[in-house]
Amino acid sequence: MPDFLPQLIQQLFNGLSLGAIYALIAIGYTMVYGIIGMINFAHGEIYMIGGYVGLVTLSAIGVQSGLPIWLVIALMLLVAVLVTGAYGFAVDQLAYRPLRHSPRLVPLISAIGMSIFLQNWVALGQGARDMAVPSLIPGAFRFGGDGGFEIFVPYSRVLVIVVTTVLMVLLTLYIRHSRMGRASRACSQDMHMANLLGIDTNRVISFTFVLGAMLAAVGGVLIALAVGKLNPFIGFIAGIKAFTAAVLGGIGSIPGAMLGGVLLGVAETLAAAYISSEYKDIVAFCVLVLVLLVRPSGLLGKPEVEKV
After folding, report:
1. Where are the beta strands (DSSP E) in 122-246?
2. In this structure, are strands 131-132 and 140-144 parallel, antiparallel, or unpaired?
3. Closest to 245 measured CA to CA, from 283, 214, 212, 288
4. pLDDT per position as a tens digit, 14-46
């Protein structure tokens, strides 16, 4: 029992870093849903592509290039954000914009098709096997020890939490105070009225896809550095879990996506540590079911009011 508290702290930290990645991806889901009321099921593959672009950028620079590590990571993030932003724009233009006024099932099927296409596109281009990502940030903070349980906090996981927190704050300020942020909020409340008031709704929708893709790309690069490997199929599972996080927090709510991601990450990690790693997904989805039974709109979501 004396090691219970240090072990709990260790698992909470692990869950927080995993939940931060889920939150970055979940924001893309919740922003697209908040604007057009649809789910972009190709979003998980955008996250995966971000990780691959970061790895390709690192290979082009070279691990032994002599550049400072912080500059190498910044370049990886910058290139990944730019490339995946273009992918996000392309997904909107190809899979959603031509179907803007179609029944909801049609763009949903189109998004699933785009997801499969992107997954196979990367598998054909980079191979379907696992690819190793060099460890740029070795080492960790260590607490405790002396015969007891030692808390191990890798620098790479700390970077995930710090970068995610900074991005969340910046995104919140941008959505609240910028012109495009105000336009996005207007579109999420009433798309038709926003269009009548002169807002270019197609531009706002494309911006939403691009911004969500950029955030997912950051998550892809950070998790690749933290875990040390990539494959073309990581986007599907991460995407499903991030979508679950968005629903848990309240689909359409950016703070809800953040909260849902953290809660899902912590629940999954605690289940793996104290029950079994084979049950972690079961526990995470059971938490979702229980929350939705009590609050169908999610923790921070607002119930939809039907207009008669």
Report:
1. 131-132, 140-144, 150-154, 229-230
2. unpaired
3. 288
4. 999 999 999 989 988 888 888 877 788 889 999
Helix (H, G, I), strand (E, B) or coil at 305: coil
Residue 308's pLDDT is: 46
- pLDDT-derived band at 218 (thresholds 50, 70, 90) equals very high
Chain segment 252-277, per-residue pLDDT in tens? 788 888 889 999 999 899 888 888 88
Max CA-CA distance within the chain? 69
- Between CA 288 and CA 269 the distance in angstroms is 15
Distance CA 226, CA 133 (A): 9
Residue 229 β-bridge partners = 132
Nearest to 244 by CA among 41, 13, 37, 11: 41
Which of 52-62 are b and which e, b meaning 16 or more Cβ less than 10 Å from the residue's Cβ? bbbbebbeebe
* SS3 track for 270-292: HHHHHCCHHHHHHHHHHHHHHHH
Share of the chain above pLDDT 90, in %: 28
pTM: 0.88
CA distance 183 to 188: 9
Q: Tell me if residue 22 falls in helix, strand or coil.
A: helix
Q: Is 63 helix (H, G, I), strand (E, B) or coil?
A: coil
> Which of left, alpha, beta for 45 (phi over 0: left; psi -120 to 50: alpha)?
alpha
CA dihedral 258, 259, 264, 266 (to 10 degrees): 110
